[in-house]
């Protein structure tokens, strides 16, 4: 929720950018670089091969519990310009 002060500031910044574009033309647009980011979730479950371990023939079998995959987040960031 934007406050009135935030809305006024946003309006002023937009007006300043328009004024600068009117004064400089397309050369102003050539200097603008913008970007975006998102958080990508990923997980890497343990494979059956990775969970295997050596045991003696007379050893009791290992009890396998249901496990959750290891999860993580990665921030993907992209920047671009006029070209």
Secondary-structure topology with pairs:
Elements: H1 4-24, H2 26-30, E1 34-44, H3 48-51, E2 70-80
Antiparallel strand pairs: 1-2
Which short descriptors sum up this protein?
two-stranded antiparallel ribbon, single chain, alpha+beta, 83 residues, elongated
Report on this structure.
With 83 residues, this protein is α+β, with helices and mostly antiparallel strands. The chain has three helices and two strands, in the order ααβαβ. It is elongated. The model has no long low-confidence stretch (mean pLDDT 83).
Put the structure in a nutshell.
By secondary structure, this protein is of the alpha+beta class.
**Largest sheet: number of strands, sense, barrel closure:** 2 strands, antiparallel
Instruction: Supply the helix-strand structural class.
Output: alpha+beta
Strand order, sheet with most strands: 1-2
Uncertain segments = none
């Amino acid at each position: 929720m934007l406050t009135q002060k935030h809305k006024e500031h946003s309006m002023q910044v937009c007006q300043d950018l328009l004024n600068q574009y009117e004064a400089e033309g397309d050369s102003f647009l050539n200097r603008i670089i913008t970007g975006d980011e998102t958080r990508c979730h990923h997980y890497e479950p343990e494979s059956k091969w990775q969970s295997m371990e050596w045991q003696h023939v007379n050893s009791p079998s290992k009890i396998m519990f249901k496990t959750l995959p290891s999860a993580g987040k990665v921030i993907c960031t992209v920047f671009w310009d006029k070209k």
